[in-house]
Amino acid sequence: MIVGIDLGxxxxxxxxxxxxxxxxxPNRLGKLLTPSVVSIDNEGxxxxxxxxxxxxxxxxxxxxxxxxxxxxxxxxxxxxxxTFKAEELSSFVLKSLKEDAEDYLQETIExxxxxVPAYFNDMxxxxxxxxxELAGFTVKRIINEPTAAALSYxxxxxxxxxxxxxxxxxxxxxxxxxxxxxxxxxxxxxIAGDNYIGGENFTNVLAHxxxxxxxxxxxxxxxxxxxKLMKAAENWKCEFTKKDEVHMSFVMHGTVYETTIHQxxxxxxxxxxxxxxxxxxxxxxxxxxxxxQDIDEIVLVGGATRMPIVRRFVKSLxxxxxxxxxxxxxxxxxxxxxxxxxxxxxxxxxxxxxTDVCPYTLGTEVISNNGIFDEDGHYLPIIERNTxxxxxxxxxxxxxxxxxxxxxxxxxxGESRLAYNNLLLGEVSVSVPVxxxxxxxxxxxxTYDVNSLLEVEVHVLSTGAKEHLIIQxxxxxxxxxxxxxxxxxxxxxxxxxxxEEANKLILLRGERLYEESSSYTRKxxxxxxxxxxxxxxxxxxxxxxxxxxxxxxxxxxxEQEEDDVFASSGLLS
Length: 573
Ligand code: AMP
Description:
By secondary structure, this protein is an alpha+beta fold. β10 (111-116), α3 (122-134) and β11 (138-144) form a beta-alpha-beta unit. The radius of gyration is 25 Å and the shape is globular. Bound molecules: adenosine monophosphate. The site of adenosine monophosphate has 18 residues, from α5 and α6.
């Protein structure tokens, strides 16, 4: 038996495909939702789910939640003086679900399909797989959450052909997917998202609003009080689903603090969050080359889409009501369960072909000529984001220096024009015969499979020598170190702002537009940015201003084009 798992930021669920249908398996408390919370007591006993949630108030230092947000990072959580990584804490949740399923099904479960946010990067996916393995599962497939939700939705749309946008707002992540279902072929056209927006952020806004109204500074609160307040704020947030005005009362160190907040005021406070949520929607539409008119339906997934604020936001953006799945909490685990049926070739399930896309661009670092001299550290995209997977793409690179003995290919993931801003996944080197610069040419082939497993092959054309690099689905020491190193680098990047505000602003804007653009426009921006950076180095103030104006007008034009696209589709309200 293979099980499907929705490993959520807030709650996790497990399902299987039995007797021709998906069954969601109840936990030891008879509940379908297991809170993704872990707590450890003085004896080293691990608590998961509702029990851990209860312990959180009393033992906040021995309890962890929201660790999904730190998957694939170096962040360590200390619980009862012991430290854990996010994947280790997740493995406790998975182990608990496994035990519940084994008890319910009365058999040993070894295989699992686990869902992840579509926007999870390679490290986060690997960390999820590792969590599954630590829990004793063989992870047969990592499935994108919105794809799973779309699958559970699409299965009910008998024989219809339709394009839909899945709007998935969970506890800690926000995913947008555009899919098309045609004669039992389900194609994902584009995915986009933000791993740092979710229902928890809306809870945070409300907690801060409550504190502001009572003249209290969040930074002055101790950890147990913060935890209690967040729990209270989550309840108040849910109350807004049923009424427009919520009376809030909270006891802090013996004093009662009270206030009444209207939904309109709360909504205003959420404006920056909602604004951020527009970006992935615009990106996914652009990448899928579809307009809003082409979309037949908007499907809401994830617990936080219950919020009237979110629903109003969706309606104002799309100009129409969205469809809600019967239960936004369960659609992902139902989809994962259906995937189990497909995977085990259950004869009761309709044959459905699912094609997915890769969420990020994959590329390598190259040297680019800026018109005067060669500049290293540039990013060469090889597989563009939202390319249908499995995919294989080849590009050619040559030696950059005279008498170069080897070429090293850095395998990078990300959208930035500068290599070091992207995530380093691995490196592969190949020896080349010495000679003048540019003489030796190698072919670099990137192959990306359905589980987002990347394989890189380099081939020296003159000698026929070949080297392989498989970015394995198990994290090795080296890549963890590299990740930490890169994060340190990113911190330094942020801390070294350029003196001149206008120059800094235009550079940042250029970087952003580059990241959002397609390959053709990217080249144009890259060249303009290089021209500007060259002039900037000259310290000739007049020339800098002239070039900045030129760059600005190019970026204005590009952004105007983009606004026009969305204005015509009614997306920007
Ligand atoms: P999920 O990760 O899909 O389980 O979503 C969890 C998020 O949904 C959490 O931030 C919850 O606070 C939020 N949520 C669940 N039910 C409601 C509700 N009735 N109103 C507002 N938010 C909710």
